Amino acid sequence: MKLSEIDLSKKISKEEYADELKKHDLELEILKCQLKLRDKNKKAVVCFEGWDAAGKGGAIKRLTNPLDPRRYKVYQTSAPNELEKSKHYLWRFWVNMPSMGEMVIFDRTWYGRVLVERIEKFCSEDEWKRAYDEINQFEKTIAQDNTKLIKFFLHISKDEQEKRFKEREENPLKKYKIGKDDYRNRKRWDEYVKAYDDMFERTNNSFAGWNIIEADDKDFARLKIMKIFVKQMKEFLED
Predict the structure, then answer these.
(1) Pairing state between β 103-107 and 43-50
(2) What is the pLDDT of residues 111-128, one digit of tens each?
(3) d(Cα 103, Cα 154) in Å, to the nearest integer?
(4) Torsion 228-233-236-239 (CA) sign
């Protein structure tokens, strides 16, 4: 599983997107999964990783739109604060795990340890190399606790990212989404590709597999995410 092998030409029209939503009753199915999760006293953790401007926020918005807001939480992961820095890097995620019957969605996750922290040298080489086994054990522990773990990675091309950066700079309602860090990360594109490929190779497990989403077309990506979510949740919640 390597990013270079992903076909980013996949796309659908607005009409096809709407037809697929209706055909599969996706919004209703998503809500039914949440209600069944509640009724069975199980838990779900949904993880979103991906390039800057890949569409994680929009995908999360579409996925959560049908849900009962009392039964889920979304956490956007940013740089750790002073308290979090004084703890093990997984601590701030442990404390935000869902309660019985609930779902938690992470917009960026503990994988920062083997991505930005690795590339920016915020941790030592020994620390990020050790993190793969730590993360695998962490996720296995979560999965064994009546919890479904679904991991998405939104992949876009370098050209598409540049296009979206420019759109954000020109749109006053989106300008807050773009900053110096985005351009700094873009300059290290090849380093991130290597880190992502290592991440897929080392952390793609039967209890927590990676779903790489072709996201140059936002509607295609959102539809695929919703379908995968429903399929995997139904399998997890079947009697």
Answers:
(1) parallel
(2) 999 999 999 999 999 999
(3) 20
(4) negative
119 contacts: CB under 8 Å, gap ≥ 6: 188, 191, 192, 195
- Tell me the two tokens of residue 133: 């086994």
For tokens 């039964």, name the residue.
71
pLDDT at residue 13, rounded to an integer: 97
Considering the domain delimited by 3-237, tell me its CATH architecture.
3-Layer(aba) Sandwich (3.40)
Q: Which two tokens stand for residue 163?
A: 């296009």
| Distances from the Cα of 106 to the Cα of 35, 40, 50, 233, angstroms | 20, 22, 12, 17
Q: Are 154 and 213 in contact, with CB atoms under 8 Å apart?
A: yes
Tell me if 119 sits within 8 A of 195, measured CB to CB: yes
Q: Order of strands, edge to edge, in the sheet holding 72-76?
A: 72-76, 103-107, 43-50, 147-155, 210-214
Residue 211 near residue 230 (C-beta atoms within 8 A):
no
Cβ–Cβ < 8 Å for 211, 151: yes
Place of tokens 């927590």: 208
Residue 202: the pLDDT is: 98
Query: What does each C-alpha distance from 178 to 55, 76, 108 come to in angstroms?
Result: 13, 16, 16
CA distances in angstroms from 211 to 6, 43, 86, 154, listed in the order given: 12, 19, 32, 9
- Residue 199 CB-half CA count within 13 A: 28
The answer to which of 42-51, 174-183, 217-226 has the lowest mean pLDDT is: 174-183
